Amino acid sequence: MFKVLLLLLLLLTGFVNSTLAQTASLSTSSKRAEELYYKADTYVKARDFRKALEVLSDATEKDPDFGEAYLKSANLYKMMGEKEAAFQHLQKGLALVPFNPARANEYYTLAGFYFDRGNYQAAKEQYEHFLRANPRNQKLADLARKHIRTTDFALRAMENPVNFNPELLPAPLNQFGLQYFPYTTADQHQIIFTARLSSNPGHDENIYVSQWHEEGGWQEPVSISGLINSAAQEGAATISGDGKTLVFTSCNRPDSYGDCDLYISRRTGNEWSKPRNMGNTVNSRAWDSQPSLSADGRTLYFTSTRGGGQGQEDIWVTFLQDDGNWLKPVNLGASVNTNGKDMAPFIHASGSTLYFVSDGHLGMGGLDAFKTTFTKQRSWTEPVNMGYPLNTHADEGSVIISPDNRTGYYSRQTMAEAGNVGIHIFKFEVPDSWKSSARSTYAQGRVFDSETKKPLAGVVQLYDVKADSLVQQVTSDPVSGEYTVVLTEGKQYALYVSAPKYLMNSLSFDYTSSQDLAPLVLDVYLNPIKAGAAVVLNNLFFATGEYKLVEESKTELNKIIGFMRQNDGVKVEIAGHTDDVGSDAANQVLSEKRAKAVVDYLTTNGIPKVRIQYKGYGEAKPVKPNTSEENRSQNRRIEMQVL
Q1: Distance between CA 276 and CA 228 in Å, rounded?
Q2: Which of 153, 314, 416, 615 is deepest in the core (most CB within 10 A)?
Q3: What are the start-end ranges of the H helices in 247-339?
Q4: What is the CATH number for 623?
Q5: DSSP for 430-459?
Q6: Bridge-based pairing state of the strands 459-464 and 271-272
């Protein structure tokens, strides 16, 4: 109560001082208007603000050009919290009186009103008036200079708009009063979002999902799971590329560490697991929210107000280890985070580009959308403002971009019928300047037992063979066998599918050259480990006519070593095969030397010679007729067969 009275006293003192400073010479020639102007002070001192405003209104009726009367009314409306009326009177009053350094705070206030409405030119003029008045408050002066830089940027952005034409997502989507934080799977066949029935705070915040059908479009959105949505608030969710891992925000649950925590759930078949708090390694006693998973669900970006960052809201990242635990989150640093708000991260499926919103980087006011790229030096580039008309004077929400860089989604506040405020989800064709630095597509299929044809829960690993590094790892669904991995242009991949008691399967994808990134549908059949079972090793590479293994073969060779160590009772034969180009004798020798090169690497790296042998078959066992280069490439192969 004491603080409220003190604040009122300060406001009244400021009002009186302003009146004394600004009434030495009034602009009106009407004696009656002047009398009414001073009469208003009596009502102000009596704290009868409404009566004071009535009297001032009478004064401006007597003289419509009485600037000081409008300004006094503006100050009263401001004290009463009636911003629109304060703006209208302040705008009119300052236009009627000459420049006066004593009005510095009023220039600053009017500049803020213009700024909040996106009237950048008028805002800039008022901020310049404020600085011209040589204000003593250096903090406000610094803010005014910052806002002038913002207005200059905004005016340039509006003169050079981005070709951005958003479309409201059609029914049955956008049926709630509020829907926001959209997120899709890699194939864009599922969209999840947070929704409330209306802007009423009493309406529960929950996560919904809609499925895409080629014939019927988006289906009726439904609650993602009764195990996930609860009486608490759930929202700001992210989903892995394969749609099997969900991380979301929930607030004030009994097991929370802070106000809002991150929770994780995994899908088997069509059922989501009971969500689990991600623990105090990831969560803090502060606010943790707005997660974004990498395509394989092993890297998590999120927003937090925890200490140790650059500002109040910062973006952090954590990584999933092979033992299933998440590492301690790391702040993205000063290249991304500022002393302002940096929020709502979205990591592109390629892993190369991060989108987020911020009010700390130069923008158009409020939260603007930015993009930053991860470099080969393992750092983030200077964030780039995504421009007008995506960014405006209002706060922007999260932005997501599809793996192929073609389609984007975002949410924006809209005015519904009867003036009701809503938030709706839009899609748009991605302008070139907003695209991720790399395009991605996906390989999708199912993993089966080759004999029973039953689905398997296999580990699907994607390696960058140039870097010999694991870039993605997912597990196929134990009920359906389904899996999805993301493939990004500019890389040569080795794909491995494995399961206990089965031979691993080795596949190769080369995206180093420019090509159409069409999605791949690829079912994988694993052979049980038993005598006679064989697999082609598709990621062993030799120069034409040579038998020396090239460096890109290292990933595959080490995978074979891992398989042999995990199955220490297994003995295998490494078999070399060629096409029919060249003489039979030369092909026979080449096939033997290539097979021997593989065995030599394995034995040199600890695999006992008694467990592995080699043989060359030359061109004797083609898998396809040698009638085309494509067929010949399949005949040139190394196989591993269980003895």
Answers
A1: 10
A2: 314
A3: 279-282
A4: 3.30.1330.60
A5: PPGGGS-SS-EEEEEEEEEETTT--B---E
A6: unpaired
- In degrees and rounded to multiples of 5, residue 60 shows phi and psi of -75, -20
> Which of 460, 457, 509 has the alpha carbon at shortest distance from 488?
509
Last residue of a domain, one of 137, 159, 181: 159
What single string gives the DSSP state of each residue in 148-203? HHHHHHHHHHHHS------EEPPTTSS-SSEEEEEEE-TTSSEEEEEEESSS-TTS
For residue 214, is pLDDT > 90?
A: no
For the segment 474-513, what is each residue's pLDDT rounded down to a tens digit? 999 999 999 999 999 888 899 999 999 999 999 998 888 7
Domain C-terminal end among 434, 460, 485: 434
Please state the pTM of the whole predicted model. 0.89
510 and 617: one domain? yes
As a whole number of angstroms, the distance between CA 222 and CA 585 comes to: 66
CATH code for position 356: 2.120.10.30
Are 318 and 380 contained in the same domain?
yes
Residue 570, domain extent: 440-642
Instruction: Specify whether 419 is located in the same domain as 520.
Output: no
The pLDDT, as a whole number, for residue 416 is 59
Six-digit token string for 88: 């209208």
291, 367: one domain: yes
